[in-house]
Structures are given as C-alpha cells and as structure tokens.
Amino acid sequence: MNKIVILTFALLLSWLLVGNASSASAPLTLNEVQSSAQQAFPSLLAAKQRQRAAEGEYQTAEGAFDTTLKVQNRWSVTGLYQNRNNDISIEQPTSLGGTTFFGGWRRGTGDYPVYDGKSLTATDGEARLGVNIPLWRNREIDQRRASLKQAELGQMIAGHEYDQILLEIRRLAAHRYWDWVLAGQRLQIAKRMLQIAEQRDAGIRKRVTAGDIPKFEALDNQRAIIERRERRVAAQRMLEQSAIQLSLYWRDAEGRPRMPVAEQLPSGFPGQVPTTTLDYPKALQTALAQRPELRRLDMQSRQTQIDLELQQNQRAPDVDLSMMGAKDIGNGKDNLNRNELYVGLNVNIPLQRRVASGRAQVAGANLQRLTSERILLEDRIAAELKDILSALSAARQRQTLTLLQQTAAQKLEEGERTRFELGDSTLLIVNLREIAHGDAALLATEATSNLFKGYADYQAALGMQAK
C-alpha cells in the first residue's frame, strides 16, 4: 500500500514538473504580457481605486436627497404651566425644481399660556403636510443637483483616467516586449558569429601546421574569437536587462513581477508586419474622437460649467413659496379640532452677492483654462500622430533596405569564405565580411523592432483599446 502511495506521488510530482517546464519554455506572447499588466500593474490598480472613490463620491451626492426624519420631545417639568410636546417630522428633498416635501405629526398636552395656545393639539395629535417650492434661486439648479451631476461626471473622468493609463501601459509593455525579442535576436547573432570563428579555428591551425597559410592568420582568428566572446557577453547583458524591464509588465496572479527566461523567447519577429490603414486626416479624426485625455477634459469642462451655472444662480434673490396644511386628530379641549392651511412667501436677498460673484469668477476662469488646455492637447496629438506616421514610414523603408543589405552581406560572407578556403583571400577580409553580415542582420532586426514599436505607438495615439 505504501509503495502505491509513493508511486502515485512520484507520478504526480513528475507531471507537475513537466507541466511547469513546458509552460515555462512556451514562447511568451505580447498578448500575455499586456493582459497580465492590465490585471496587476500597480498604476492601473491605483486608477481602479480612483474609480471606486468616484463611485463613493456619487453615492455621497445622492445622499443629499436622503429622507430626513426628526424627532423632538419637550417636557415642562417646573414652572407655572406644566405641558408636554412631542414632534415627529419627515422631509424629502427632490430634483423637481428644487422642491422639498415635508410632513409630520405632533402632540401637545397640558397647560399652555394663551399666547402659546397653538402648541395644544387634540388628543391624537396634529398631522401636517407641506411643500416648499423655490421660485427664483435654486429653481433651475441648486447645490444638491449640481453636486450630483458633478459626481456623475467625476465617475466618467475616473474612467477616462483609467483608459489613459491603460493605453500607456499597453504601449510601454509592447516596447519592452519587442526590446526583449530584439535582445534575444542580438544574442543569437553574437552566438552565430562566435560559433563560426570557433569552428574555423581547428582548420586554420591545421593549415598553419601544413604551411598553407601564415601563422598570424591563426592569431587573427584567436583575436576574432575573443572579440566575439565579448560581443556575446554584451548581448547576454542586454537580454538580461530587457528581461528585467519586461518583468515590470509581465506579472503573476499576485501582481509580482515575473522574469522571462531565454527559453520563452520567440524564434523571431512575426512574419506579418503590422500595417496602418488610415491616412493622416482620418487618423487625426479618430484620435480626437477616441483619446481619453480629450474626453477627460470635456468632462472637467462640463463639471466647471455646472459650477458656473450654480454660482450665477446663487446671485439671484432667494424667493420660496411654502404651503402647509394641518389637521387635528381626535378630541381636544373645548372641542378643539382645527383644520389649517398656511401659505408663505419667503424672500432672502443678498445685497453684495460677493460670495457667489467670486465663485462665479473662479469657475469662469477655470472654464477658459480648460478650453486652452484642450486646444494645446489637440495640437500635441496632431503633432504626435504626424511624428508616429513619419516614423512608421521610415521604419518600413529601413526594414526593406536592411533586409536587402543583409542578403547582400550574407552572399559576400559566403563568397569570401570560399575564396579563403581556396587561398585567394585572407582571414582579415573574411572576418570583416562576417562582421558586416552580423551588423546587417542586427540592423534588420532593429528596423523590424522599431516597426512593431511604432505600431504600438500608433495604436496608443489613436486611443485604440484592447478588444
């Protein structure tokens, strides 16, 4: 029985190890990096919390329309008149022109002076119901409705801020990913050049021994080996550095950076290079419609416009119409049973109006500031898009030319190596041809990397989100 358990455990452990090894060696894709960054990158998580905070602000603004219940109890325990008064009221503000409804019940018992006779109610109390209607100030807009609208816009602003950070994170993740792929290709080129020199070394030594070529040819090849080993070390360092930078965006489920290993490098850049389908006018139109920075500024302008409208409204006189009906319930002293209707007009006129005027001036200035900021941002987006499209065009041309250069350098390298084997060339020329081929291959990979990074910039400039 123990042998079966041990065997089962060993099989399970081996399966886990093989599974982890296979997953670790699978090529890491750009989509995996961007998806993990979107789930766990700290600045995006912080933006998520700002969205939650905006939701809390909206709930707070809604609280201004909460129903209010008030309870007052008063007892006269000493003095000439002994009485008791209980009062329960409820108030409900609304967004209907700033109208507030209220109602309540009160009960007054005991002895009251003649001038306070209205405090006395029937045996079952007095019920009342009323309404307060703003006629001038607070009719079109008041602090409650303004705060609610601004909080709703605040949620949209937080969403656009998140989108803006997401665009930048995806762009930077793409840059770091293609830098990592480029570093892997650079290391492969360095290894290939070193391998050629090392494999050639034994043959050169034999030819020197046979007197076919001078001894300094072997020494020159040793120098080439040392130089190419140094290049391999430098390329290895660049790969490690790019992997460290990429780990900031490739994160595990707990949000910790993961270091990609060389076995996860793809074999090369994708065969199909990205293409742009929009010319500059259409691309600019798309960017101006989709960029979250512009949408955020629009929402901030709307917030400020609401504040301006509120302050302009607060400069008007405060004129409120109030109506209330009251009815005694039950029997009262001397057959007290009153039905009452009250109509009131309350007027409050600020003479200097400096508070509202000053705040309106602040809101107006902020609105003009946001308008200027939007104009500058539009100009920056236009310039950015022009530069990106120019860079993409140059990257495509460079890729085509560097591939042609690489093909020519490869043919020259192969031909020069054949001439050397036939004794018609020197190792110095062969080494120069090999270096030229390696440099051409590196230029081709750099041009391809720039093309893919340029396309990531293009997507971010248009405001294109992940689907």
How would you explain this protein's 3D organization?
The chain is an alpha+beta fold and 467 residues long. It folds into two domains: 2-40 and 144-306 and 373-462, Outer membrane efflux proteins (OEP) (Up-down Bundle); 66-135 and 316-349, no CATH class. Helices cover 63% and strands 13% of the residues. The protein has a six-stranded antiparallel beta sheet with strand order 1-2-3-4-5-6, with no helix packed on it.
Strand-helix topology:
Layout (H helix, E strand, L loop, with lengths): L1 H24 L4 H11 L1 H21 L5 E8 L7 E11 L6 E11 L15 E9 L8 H67 L5 H33 L32 H11 L1 H23 L3 E11 L10 E10 L5 H68 L5 H36 L5
Antiparallel strand pairs: 1-2, 2-3, 3-4, 4-5, 5-6
The biggest beta sheet reads: 6 strands, antiparallel
Q: Provide mean pLDDT, rounded.
A: 88
Give the helix tally: 9
Structural class: alpha+beta
- CATH topology of the largest domain, what is it called? Outer membrane efflux proteins (OEP)
- Taken from the alpha-carbon principal axes, the silhouette is elongated
Q: What is the count of β-strands?
A: 6
Give the name of the CATH architecture of the largest domain: Up-down Bundle
The stretches of 5 or more residues where confidence is low (pLDDT under 50) are 1-23
Strand order across the largest sheet:
1-2-3-4-5-6
| Succession of helices and strands | HHHEEEEHHHHEEHH
Helix content: 55-70%
N- to C-terminal distance: 53 Å
Look at the structure and name the CATH superfamily of the largest domain. Outer membrane efflux proteins (OEP)
- Which band does the percent of strand residues land in? 5-15%
Backbone CA Rg: 40 Å
Q: Please tell me the total number of domains.
A: 2
CATH class of the largest domain: Mainly Alpha
